UniProtKB/TrEMBL annotation, chains A, B, C, D, E, F:
GO MF annotation list: aldehyde-lyase activity; metal ion binding
UniProt protein name: 4-hydroxy-2-oxoheptanedioate aldolase
Protein family (similarity comment): Belongs to the HpcH/HpaI aldolase family.
Class of the enzyme per the UniProt entry, highest EC level: lyase
InterPro entries: Aldolase/citrate-lyase_domain (IPR005000), HpcH-HpaI_aldolase (IPR050251), Pyrv/PenolPyrv_kinase-like_dom (IPR015813), Pyrv_kinase-like_dom_sf (IPR040442)
GO (cellular component) term, any one: cytoplasm
EC number(s) from the headed UniProt entry: 4.1.2.52
A Pfam family reported for this protein in Swiss-Prot or TrEMBL: HpcH_HpaI
Domain HpcH/HpaI aldolase/citrate lyase span(s) in chain numbering: 13-185
Length: 249, 249, 249, 249, 249, 249
């Protein structure tokens, strides 16, 4: 069905720091979670606890941070996230500026914090280099300017891949509400190709069957399969439907 | 399909004070929620916020309290719960003692607290009587002694119905792990009959199709259809199964 | 006493996410609350719980956000706020830039988030339009530059009215500490007139009797009557004064 | 107006761990606060933070604990409370049993915890004796049995005074809803006399003017003047009344 | 130095749910942690998050519960604790009653909760048996009555070992403040022997060198080496001492 | 050992809002605490509680804020902090812009908030002036540009001193990982001299003996002696080392 060489990483999308939910997705076979810090309800103290828990479960933690700003990027990485996804990157220049906040000098401009990431002990130069390699920075492609510059963005040294934001991209590419139609998929394919050229992975939320097929066909490195709210909604809805059939309603 | 005269109240079982989840179950058509305070993670400050939110959504709040003790019963009612389910009632004598904590004198021994339940204003005698009628007390039938005394328990003035605990009941009736088999259902039917004789409702967690059918057939007043953890588990599992079929795994 | 055609909306000013306080102000007859996220102690998880609770109580929620930045504006709206008040807008250019964060394209640049505001289900183009109409964006007029540009700001498509910040405005208009004097009221009247010309409402904190009269006379759309700290202070002070008169102190 | 020799301690009644509220009552001249842990929303972690803060403000902390049980009594004292008020003491025998949980052996049976109360360092025998003297235990007189035994209860070595619960007492003395009438005041006077005989203080919530006068006349050691909810209610109501008079409503 | 055959488990004593502290003790080589829920500030929601985190770090979790009551014992085990230490067990009869709350029928009377401990899925009879074996119940020996009955307590089927509470034991054995003297050690040795006879482990907090030596010599199964407060105190004190030597103070 | 005229203020570095830790450092003799809001886990509601507690303990509170932005600076000062340390100031121009957020007009551009800092009452012009004097603004010198401009930065009216960030400074001055070597100390000495010329204090984290000596010799106004994580690490490590020596490991 695809010429891809390896399984994509399969991710769940979380809106709250629910520990049981993390155990459930890990047991269900997920590889990764996306924390929607941008629109969810993750406070700092909660993140400081949740991120290391997720990592101990063996889940890759992609922190979709609050805003394209220094503070939220650094904190997610300080707390141990494997990757940051940076929303609303506007274009190549903006990407160049903001992605450096996720990499230590000389590559970037991330601020040093002792603690979790260095084992609560001292560091040396090799630690900075290992951190820069271990943690990934994914600018989101959801603005028209970023879409236009996607090849240049994907090529940046401070960029380890890109994260597609289909709903915002459709709005900003003047197609109105995202409907997962042919034009949307053409845009996504263009992003996938830019990443392939840069030999870097791309990440896609793929709620529907068609989106999952597309992501798989286009060799997405990480495919986000469903979100917390939708899992709850479908789970609770299925049970009430079952009961109503018993009631003969 | 049944001779019952009215629809049962359909409930969801919650383990955390998740506000979005409450909105989701209300939109899915649920009538009530059971808060598993006994085994979940509901702290006092969280309950004080969650219970009035659930009631504003139009959901009936059944607080399954921490233990058969005065404190947890009073607090759930102070915070505005519609009902308390009291775990591990041992027999009729114990039921008589502990259920009075949910009713004001002279009917019972609930302690007065101003605030939410009296509109943050003064009270008069009629308020106490209205509270005693508005809020329900449901002893759980999950111990062998309580099962033996179920008719006497259901008949108590301080009891508004009973709540079945099938897993613990099976363990304590020496059938080992609950398997929803014929013997389990015979016990449940006996409880339903005792309630019917006392003209009081009974409540049953009914995870499987067979349990849902039983509860419906035996005119359960409230049927609990699924729980938060199971909704999450099924939602996340279905998505990964879908993806694996695409992958051809 | 005024030629105004309709009652103003009466609001309370909150500094903490206190659920009982919300019930108390609703019962006292308030129409709206201002959440002082800028200077109060509202964390994300608290806001995600408090905003929908306030709305279920029938209170209009005006979120005075942390700063004139994309993140705080989006989050308040994602959590269901009826309006955002944006502090420290510097001038018309700044207003044009920052108020677009509260409106979806093509009108503005708000980022899409599924969940509460779309009923945890899918959206279509009409939803974006309805959101843009349902939620209001109020730049604050508290900087000298914004005061000078108030007519242009009020006229912006992305602006639904303005929110006066008298203390900061007095400081920045070189009158020093705000004293609710004639010069302060002249400034406020100028803001009211700019809004009247733009046929848009304006909002004013009116702690004193004179301020309440001014706001009423000038047809303020929302008048903020008192704040949490002051309600507590006056309530506790009155009781101790009463006691001291009994003591003959 | 009274022959009393010293000013009573004036207290505020709190339902939440609000730090600003504590500063406000301290500045208003209050001497003490009652934390209504029994019916309010004070979790353990919040109490651990709030109690030492109140004490640093110079406020005496009276913790009205969750229930007449070992755990809640010990925790309030471990966190540094000056006194515990124990609800629902049933009679002298019950008082004898439960009040010992607030005193170390050999006087009582309080469990030792290192930490705050011993300055995070070691202890010696004199520390136990000083703790027993520094911290007060106040059984509540709100059950008919406790009322009957009030003299014996006040005389116990493990009792430092009593705390009147007028609403529950009225219900349990078969007068129905408390109305601060002559019979209620007769009961309160009997409690005051029992304490005078034992040379121990008594504590009374005195919301109305008549109750404040009574408490003062009967030499109450601590008079609780108003509660958080009522302070908020009166503060917010006064402001809306003022506005309505301006509106001419 | 001892004839013991195996290394004791080395434990740290925690008073707060600090995630970084857990990582630090794990990296320092500790095997276990004791959560002082009885005197610390562990709320339910915090425990539900902290216990599984500690276990993923490879640390054995001994939850010293709030009180000798059903609720706190069950919750700690529901959240995944490896063991519960039950304070203030009064004697063999009390031990027999309360320790059964930590074991499922037919061995004991623990209440069933789905969720974490059964992998969020269904259970069968073998699961109950495995849980009873996997989780340990340690009554505390800190009351005089429990000390007298220690051999009988250690022999109970529902008891997996005992946990010494030296400070309370000294007070209740009429030696006043615990001073780690010869009489204290004689008591501890008696407890150790009772456990050896029952072939069950015992656990001892051993803050001083002499206590550590004693615990090691007497083959304690778990030795608690220091506590959070003391670690902080010594760490901060050492640094200020160092600075003062530089200052020449 | 130094020609300095007064003792430096001795500070502890905190990563969490731990109330017991605050009491421990105060008792150990510390004068001040640095709250690492930039990299720690301090949410708004926690800060609103912690800062006034620290001040009541007599500790000077230096809030190292989240980012060089208006919001975090204002909030720390609104909650009562004595000083803000502003990370990642890039150069003199940036310092001039961002430090004004910590000073009210006409000196700077801090936004007014009623409440704690003005005693929950009204303010007059003198209050603004007193606040500007009472609260200090310390830009951090940790970027190469700020280092180059340190004399100009130290001379700004809105700057009350500077705070050295040695690890980031070493990275950004192209020396790689900070090693407290001669080049690092040369940089620090240059900063100290710039402050001496401007007659303003400077602040230095001084973990090692050599750093403490340097800071003392160069008349640092505040010397930060150790951090929470290191205090825990050394405390827990020392105890396990002691035990291993007993074990003969």
């Amino acid at each position: 069905m695809s010429g891809r060489n390896q399984h994509p990483s399969l991710a769940a999308w979380f809106s709250t720091p629910n520990f049981a939910e993390a155990e459930i997705v890990q047991q269900a076979g997920y590889d990764a979670v996306v924390l929607d810090i941008e629109h969810g309800s993750f406070d700092l103290a909660a993140l400081e606890r949740y991120i290391p828990f997720l990592r101990l479960l063996g889940l890759t933690v992609i922190a979709k941070v609050l805003a394209p700003e220094r503070g939220p990027i650094q904190q997610a990485l300080d707390f141990g996230a494997d990757a940051v996804a940076i929303p609303h990157v506007e274009n190549e220049k903006h990407a160049r500026y903001i992605t450096q906040m996720g990499k230590f000098p000389t590559l970037g401009d991330r601020s040093f914090a002792g603690g979790r990431t260095c084992g609560y002990g001292p560091t040396d130069q090799s630690w900075y280099e290992r951190q820069n390699r271990r943690t990934a920075v994914y600018p989101m492609i959801e603005d028209a300017g970023a879409f236009n510059d996607v090849s240049a963005i994907a090529a940046l040294d401070t960029v380890d891949g890109v994260f597609v934001g289909p709903s915002d991209l459709s709005l900003r590419r003047n197609r109105g509400a995202y409907s997962a139609d042919a034009d949307d998929f053409t845009d996504i394919e263009a992003i996938a190709k830019a990443c392939a050229s840069a030999s870097k992975p791309w990440i896609m939320p793929a709620w529907t069957h068609a989106e999952k097929q597309l992501a798989y066909r286009l060799d997405a490195g990480t495919i986000i399969l469903t979100m917390e709210h939708e899992a709850l909604r479908s789970g609770f809805t299925n049970s009430i439907d079952e009961m109503r059939s018993i009631e003969g309603v």
